[in-house]
Specification:
With 89 residues, the protein is of the alpha+beta class. Helix content is 21%, strand content 47%. It has one domain: Alpha-Beta Plaits (2-Layer Sandwich), CATH 3.30.70.1340. The chain is globular, with a radius of gyration of 13 Å.
Length: 89
């Protein structure tokens, strides 16, 4: 099975905790080298975030647990790159 190098998630999260807290926690997962969280839309009680994770080999289950612990839900996995290098940009 190929190692995961990049993953883009569409996430629905409450306003609190902040994206800064969530990004730091996701960045602490083994194999994660970088995390980018972009707020795509804001509603009264929630915000939609695009979370991009890049690394050497990380486990989706570890990321999902953190996201769920922060009261957020993964709506979809929008992109995954596996193998020796990330293809495309």
């Amino acid at each position: 099975m190929g190692v995961v190098k990049l993953m883009v998630l569409d996430v629905l999260k409450p306003h609190e905790p902040s994206i800064l807290d969530m990004a730091r926690k996701l960045g602490s997962v083994k194999g994660v080298e970088g995390v980018d969280v972009t707020i795509m839309s804001v509603d009264r009680k929630v915000e939609t975030a695009k979370i991009t994770i890049e690394g050497t080999d990380f486990m989706y289950d570890s990321l999902l647990k953190i996201i769920n612990d922060y009261g957020a839900t993964v709506k979809s996995i929008d992109r995954v790159s596996t193998g020796k290098k990330v293809v495309g940009s």
